Each structure stands twice: as C-alpha cells, then as structure tokens.
C-alpha cells in the first residue's frame, strides 16, 4: 500500500515493501545514510506525524524513542508520515559539573557526570553547549567502561570559550549540556604497518588464515549488525580482499590491489561498538580453529592499527593525492545505452535522462523519481 511521506519540503509516495529510506532515495531526496540496515543510525529521523514500526525504534535509546525518533532504513510505512531531520537540542546530553580545574599548562579539566548512559572512549571529542557559533571542544580522558565520572580536557584556547559558570573554581552541581562523543579524523591516511613475516609462517603460509577467514565471513554475513555493511559484496569477494590485504600487511609483498581501510571505508559510519563486535567475532573464530592466543594477538594488532582510519562519526570524502572526492548526493545523467531502472526494473532507453545516486550508482527512471515534489 502506498503512503505519502513529507520531508523538509519533499512529498513522495511509498511503494509496497519499500522502506522510508528507499522511498526517499528513489525519489532523489538527498539524506544522510550509510549501512541501510539499522547498525550505524546515520539515517536517524524524527516522525512528527504518523506511525513508526517497532523494528525501526528497537535499537534507539529510550529518550530518543520518547521523542519519536526512528530509523527510516528499518521502517516500512504503515501510514502517511511527516518527518524531519534530528534536532540539535535533542542530541545533547545533560550533565552535572563536579569540578573545573586549571592545569599547570593552561588547559582546563572538567569532571562531569552525565545524566544518562553515555558510551564513550578515551581520546574522543565532546562539544560543550554554549549557544555560540563556535562551541568549545574538549578531549575525553576517561573511559565509560571503568569511570563513573567523565573527565575531559580543554586546550587553553578552547577553555577561553567556556562561560564563567564553568571556569576553574566553578560551583559543584552546575548543569551543562554536551554534544557527542565524536571521533576525530586522522590528518593522514595510515601507511602499511611494519611486516611480520614470522606470523605468516605460523599461519602455515596463509593456509590457516584463509580457513579462518572463510569461517569468519560466514558469521559476518549472518550477523544482523555487521551484514548490512556488506550489501552488494559477495562473500567470496570479501574473503579474497581481506586475505590479500592482510597478507600484504604481514609479509610486505605487494599483492593487494584495493584501497587501504581509510578510502575503502570512507563513507561507512562504523562505530567503536560495531568495530568491537567485529573483532570479538574474529577472535572467537581464531580460537575455534585452535590458534594460539599469541598468534591471534599479533593478527589482531594489525587490524587494531587501522581502527582510527575505519571508525568515524561522519563519512569522509575519498582522497586521491591532494584531491578530495565527494560521492554522495544525486546527479542527472543522460544514458549512453539502454538499461533497467534499479527501482521498477523497467527499461530506460538510450538518450533518456535518469537520476543517479553518485555513491550507490543506482538510477531512477523519470517515473520513479517523479514522485518527489
């Protein structure tokens, strides 16, 4: 059944068994998304009117569910809907100040207690909500899995932006709000690590590595959180690429023809939680194959080395030399030869103009794209 979906001036009509996200993309509405399977939460939206489905709300924090947020990639419309993008004020965390300390080098340390569960890691960034255009940025120095009180440090220049109520010596119990946590984009793509050829020998010249990777990707493609990131990629392709990439990392042989992790994953919003889930599954598979912990640790250390180039809060442009290549959004293209529309499977003749999503490479014929007002 078809329903009308309104989103920031666009009015589109859904189709049977089509998610809200797919309806908007088919119609040429440029919105943020990544995995399309509910794992990354990039497509988060707020439903102002209409109903959402339980699967589209299930993985969200309760406070966002109460505010009628949902994941369009997990929602097949059950009614007409009016949607809008996340509101900045909804994505902040209320905190209580415990202490503001001036450090010897001019930096300021804030000890704060979040008023709701906030998962974060040491080294991530927060923004202190001040209502100003340039909000002060702070680096997290504590870990949520061991510390009750969150500790953050602001460089002197950032601390100068703090309101008087949060300056060193501030009163205990002052309320504040923070945005984040965010992951910083490393300034340069990581080079290959130093080879460890002895590890390849311990893996029987790669025989054990391939056997483990084959078993690992069976699990990945069955995992509800990890599988969405492999849409359109065959299992054998994923195995071959990871095998050749890791072989080059370990042996130093120039055999891998693809991008290193930063460019290969540049558009994927992969959180630390998703990356940790992947690593746990990887280590579980190694142990099932009787591989020694010391050998597993050496393999895992290589994968962990690339974590900063994979985990991110926002998508990054692909970088080739000094050129940044942005491939999100849509463009109008004239077909050089006939093909099929990716949405209705009807023939589109050479010479016709179609709507193409730059990253996905999918096209919408004039009938599929015409529902966007």
TrEMBL record:
PROSITE patterns: 2FE2S_FER_2. It holds the Pfam family Fer2. Keywords: Heme, Iron, Metal-binding, Transport. Residues 1-89 form the 2Fe-2S ferredoxin-type domain. GO terms for molecular function: heme binding; iron-sulfur cluster binding; metal ion binding; oxygen binding. The keyword Ribonucleoprotein does not apply. InterPro entries: 2Fe-2S_ferredoxin-like_sf, 2Fe-2S_ferredoxin-type, Beta-grasp_dom_sf, Globin-like_sf, Globin/Proto, Hemoglobin_trunc. The keyword Transmembrane helix does not apply. Heme binds at residue 265. This is 2Fe-2S iron-sulfur cluster binding domain-containing protein.
